[in-house]
Amino acid sequence: MAVNSRISGLKDRSVAERRALVADGAGVDAAALTALDAGGLTVEQADHMIENVVGTIAIPLGVATNMTVNGRDYLVPMATEEASVVAAASNAARIARVHGGFHASGTGPVMIAQIQLLGAVDPHGARARVLEARQEVLDLANAQDPVLTRLGGGARELTARVLETRDGTQVIVHLHVDVRDAMGANAVNTMAEAVAPVLAERAGARSLLRILSNKADTRLVRARAVFDAELLGGPRVVDDIVSASAFAEADPYRAATHNKGIMNGISAVVLATGNDTRAVEAGCHSHAARDGRYTALSRFEKDRDGNLTGTLEVPMPVGLVGGATRAHPAAQTAIRILGVTSATELAEVIVSVGLAQNLAACRALAAEGIQHGHMRLHARTVAASAGASPEEVRDVAERLVKDGRIQVEYAREVLESLRSGDR
Ligand code: NAD
């Protein structure tokens, strides 16, 4: 069934109504969404995932609407504790939709495992001998994972460098592995450990670290979109977003915040689908510093028609098999709502959401300022922090927004007067 992500007014519905609409829009059984009750994870299930479990902590799961990627609609589950993230992504996706939504492509799911070799007396000769053993090493690596090779993945290439360090000269070998629908850490670590003795023997060296690199720059995914000038607020807003983008490209202080806005979208989908947020964050931030200076991950430009074009390219090591993606019932439900069938497709949606999130933040900053929309949505969290019950939250939040005072202290005052009936 073709998904329709254009559900208007989702924010004004009850949770039960939203579940029904999302299930209907995504073409999944509404009963599947009950897996999201109470965080979707029992303490017993959690006990099988990590050590010394004493409980679980729940994070709100929302669904972003309006996303179109490569001509297909997606309803996107996002796990985040931060107000306004889901609304902002949905708004930006609505603006991009007018000009065809997001277009995404990538390098393919290739991860790198590093093998560190120490003590070679002739490091350059050692490097050459390692590379001569290329086929033997690739075959040995592939023998570790018949499932992966059967699926068309496996070790593809071997590269090596001589690295000068403060602890002497080292030979660093990279094993490049197509991990298909896996995030791939366990898969490539197993291969790295298996091939290390052969590499050490050829190099006349000792192997030390054997582990993947989170600088996953052979697993890049890029997204682009055209954002309509009129819907953004006019030509001045377009020019101002270009200026804001240039600021982030030139200044690491601004770039960190600019990229944090991108990660608001990326990490929320990564978490919702049970993927490794730290691996993705390490990959993205190392990519932002790839030329030796930390910079913005995205670019915004004005096109010939005066609209805004946005582009974002980042490493995106996410999977659909392994890790918590299979073990966490809520992650499984999130993946069903998304309806993706490969890790590459998931990665393309995630990077598109990152670009949508980034555009929304830049637009708000360049137009009315970030607090205008954010604080309105944040008012409910402030009301709850002040002790408002779920029934009281809406009334208190509305009053805070109306009075332009979105502060916990004031929320307590409002709550007190509400409870004493003298509003
Ligand atoms: P995994 O080992 O559980 O699953 C991968 C395996 O699944 C493959 O080796 C293959 O044998 C099999 N498989 C079945 N169907 C497949 C398909 N369609 N495509 C690919 N493989 C298929 O998991 P993984 O993805 O290798 O490792 C991910 C986990 O490793 C995450 O939980 C991550 O947090 C953790 N981890 C991360 C790091 C790091 O980022 N530095 C280090 C160690 C572990």
UniProtKB/TrEMBL annotation:
InterPro entries: HMG_CoA_Rdtase, HMG_CoA_Rdtase_bac-typ, HMG_CoA_Rdtase_cat_sf, HMG_CoA_Rdtase_CS, HMG_CoA_Rdtase_NAD(P)-bd_sf, HMG_CoA_Rdtase_sub-bd_dom_sf
GO molecular function: hydroxymethylglutaryl-CoA reductase (NADH) activity; hydroxymethylglutaryl-CoA reductase (NADPH) activity
Keywords, in A-Z order: NAD, Oxidoreductase
PROSITE patterns: HMG_COA_REDUCTASE_1, HMG_COA_REDUCTASE_2, HMG_COA_REDUCTASE_4
Cross-referenced Gene3D superfamilies: 1.10.8.660, 3-hydroxy-3-methylglutaryl-coenzyme A Reductase, Chain A, domain 2
UniProt pathway annotation: Metabolic intermediate metabolism; (R)-mevalonate degradation; (S)-3-hydroxy-3-methylglutaryl-CoA from (R)-mevalonate: step 1/1
Superkingdom of origin organism: Bacteria
Enzyme class (EC, first level): oxidoreductase
EC number: 1.1.1.88
Catalytic activity: (R)-mevalonate + 2 NAD(+) + CoA = (3S)-3-hydroxy-3-methylglutaryl-CoA + 2 NADH + 2 H(+)
An annotated GO BP: coenzyme A metabolic process
Assigned protein family: Belongs to the HMG-CoA reductase family.
Protein name: 3-hydroxy-3-methylglutaryl coenzyme A reductase
Naturally occurring in which organism (per UniProt): Thermocatellispora tengchongensis
